[in-house]
Amino acid sequence: MKIWTIGTSNRSIDEFLSLLEAYQIKAIVDVRRFPTSKHKHFKQENLKASLNQNGIEYYHVTELGGYRKGGYKKYMGTEEFEKGLLYIETLGAGKRVAIMCAELLSDRCHRRFIADALKLRGHTVIHIIDAKESHEHKGKHESKTLDEFLHSTPAKHKKEARKHYKCAILTISTSKYRKKEKGEEPIGDTSGEIAKEMVMKNGHEVVYYNILPDKEDKIYEGITKALNTDADFIITSGGTGLTKSDVTIEVVSKLIDKEMQGFGELFRQKSYGEIGTAAVLSRAIAGVIRGKTIFCLPGSPDAVRLALNEIIIPEIAHIMKHVGE
After folding, report:
1. CB-based burial of residue 259 (10 Å sphere; 0-12 exposed, 13-18 middle, 19+ buried)?
2. Which long-range contacts (CB under 8 A, 24 or more apart) does 224-228 make?
3. Could you tell me where the DSSP H helices lie in the chain?
């Protein structure tokens, strides 16, 4: 896989966008620990808006940010760093990705360490200087620390884990359920379609799909049917809010054997970057039921896309390995 890196430096936003166009970059991965800048156009909210207006996706991957206690080399041996690398690999499998930080030259930036790790994993890393100049990363900063990182416990777990899993997808929406029962087309299950597409695009198989009403007995029945398929993990969308009809969490909470509390916390943290303080309204949860993992997501397409792109897809193999032990 080929991955690019770029620094914002003192460039204007037009110059920056022009460079991305020249190198056909389709997604920016911001690895600044604190995504702000003395240049207004490179502050996170402004940069994201400019990129999106030009058809370029923006992702802030905090797991790869700099300024780490004890130094960045030490940090590279952590599970968080591994998660960040896997996220880039997942994105890079489907589009041209550039890792972005503030410094113009990579050898003055922690991008060089990220590039080292990616190179050791068999990827080609290209550092963008300007429209006419770029160079391939040579791995000058490879070290024993990196070698230790590649053989760390998180890395071993990811390497040993299965790569492909079977998934069940449940959309929970009374209005869509009524359309399904009446045989109306199209049903308009955008979130369900996004979930199916993203799961299959990343090499997994969808073995069960259904639309359920916002009724506790029907949700229980639907989840039970999904559990009885050969699906390894289940994704539900809808019913995680605060209205009286939002009862997905009430049902799932009673079924869960072990809750994965970090999922909800991380999802709300990432949602905050997208929708601000409205993220507190989400009760998204995940956990294990009868040896299968379930993720309960909000019903909005953006929420489903965010959860799958930034948490579930990068981490599912690791999660399922532990669930199966």
Report:
1. middle
2. 226/168, 226/170, 227/289, 227/290, 227/292
3. 13-22, 44-53, 72-75, 79-92, 111-120, 144-150, 153-160, 174-182, 190-201, 216-227, 248-255, 261-275, 301-307, 313-323
- Residue closest to 223 by CA, chosen among 260, 189, 248, 259: 248
Residue 44, pLDDT > 90, answer yes
CA distances from 270 to 56, 72, 82, 167, 294 (A): 19, 23, 18, 23, 19
Environment class of residue 284 by beta-carbon count within 10 Å: exposed (0-12), middle (13-18) or buried (19+)?
Answer: buried
CB 225 within 8 A of CB 236: no
Kindly report, residue by residue over 242-258, the tens digit of the pLDDT. Answer: 999 999 999 999 999 99
- Please, are residues 320 and 162 in contact by the beta-carbon 8 Å criterion? yes
Give me the domains of the chain, ranges plus CATH numbers.
2-159 (3.90.190), 161-323 (3.40.980.10)
Token pair 């993992």 is at which residue?
293
